[in-house]
Design goal:
Elements lengths: L3 H11 L4 H8 L3 H9 L8 H14 L4 H12 L1 H12 L12 H31 L6 H4 L26 E7 L3 E7 L2 E8 L4 E6 L2 E6 L5 E5 L2 E5 L7 E6 L3
Antiparallel strand pairs: 1-4, 1-6, 2-3, 2-5, 5-8, 6-7
InterPro entries: Bact_Cytoskel_RodZ (IPR050400), Cro/C1-type_HTH (IPR001387), Lambda_DNA-bd_dom_sf (IPR010982), RodZ-like_C (IPR025194)
GO molecular function: DNA binding
Organism: Pelosinus fermentans JBW45
């Protein structure tokens, strides 16, 4: 059975990517990428970082990141996983049923019947008295005030609200294929994930937007209302920056 590192390395080599290209696209240092591929997890600072690196690396390659993390957990704790499966297969023990006390049951049924009759009578008396009193209605509240149009104006025209201001850089990404994408707006990461074909995402910025794509041929770009077509070619790892028009 392949290790986690062997699965990731094999997929990377299939795509013709170097470790340095993976570092640029995912911001994971080369030393950590190499350590994951070789199964040398001790040099990575903590389990949380390790699982995050594995998930992001797998997602970038077009794999299911969560599934790869689950495989890593199973490889680290095979005994625990086997015990959980055995516990799930164990039959449930049935608890012996207590024989009902017919005497007490009959007693409580009789008390319950009397209580229901008393409650029903009280409800009937309350509703009979309330229905005989006609509710008072404020006629002034019933009749709305008439709207008197201004002289010379036949109809009122609603003025639409002013639309919110649009930032200088607007990117619309239309996905035609699965693609891992990381987006930085004004030096701040605002999106990172693997988008699917058919999705459309919009990003805005004051100065610039940088897009890192693992499959540049799977994205059609619209930049400030202008269609630019494909970001790149199919399977191409690409980093591109779009600045404000000055």
């Amino acid at each position: 059975m392949q290790t986690i590192g062997e699965i990731l390395r094999s997929e990377r080599e299939k795509k013709g990517l170097s470790v340095k290209e993976i570092e640029i696209a995912t911001s994971i240092r080369t030393v950590y990428i190499t350590a994951i591929e070789e199964g040398n997890y001790d040099i990575i600072p903590g389990e949380v970082y390790l699982k995050g690196f594995i998930r992001n690396y797998a997602n970038f390659l077009g794999l299911d990141g969560q599934q790869i993390v689950d495989l890593y957990r199973q490889s680290q704790n095979p005994t625990t996983v086997a015990e959980e499966m055995n516990n799930m297969d164990a039959p449930l023990k049935e608890k012996p049923m207590k024989k009902p006390n017919t005497t007490n049951s009959s007693k409580w049924l009789a008390i319950g019947a009397v209580a229901i009759c008393v409650a029903g009578g009280a409800w009937w008396l309350q509703n009979s008295s309330s229905s005989s009193q006609e509710p008072k209605i404020d006629k002034q509240m019933q009749q709305p005030s008439p709207v008197i149009p201004s002289q010379g104006i036949k109809e009122q025209v609603a003025i639409p609200p002013t639309p919110a201001s649009i930032k200088p850089v607007v990117i619309i990404a239309k996905y035609t294929d699965q693609c891992w994408t990381s987006v930085t707006a004004d030096n701040k990461i605002i999106y990172e994930g693997t988008s699917q074909a058919g999705e459309t995402l919009t990003w805005e910025a004051e100065k610039n937007i940088t897009i890192k794509a693992g499959n540049a041929g799977g994205i059609d770009i619209v930049y400030n209302g202008q269609s630019l077509g494909k970001l790149g070619t199919k399977g191409e790892v690409l980093v591109k920056t779009f600045a404000a028009n000055r």
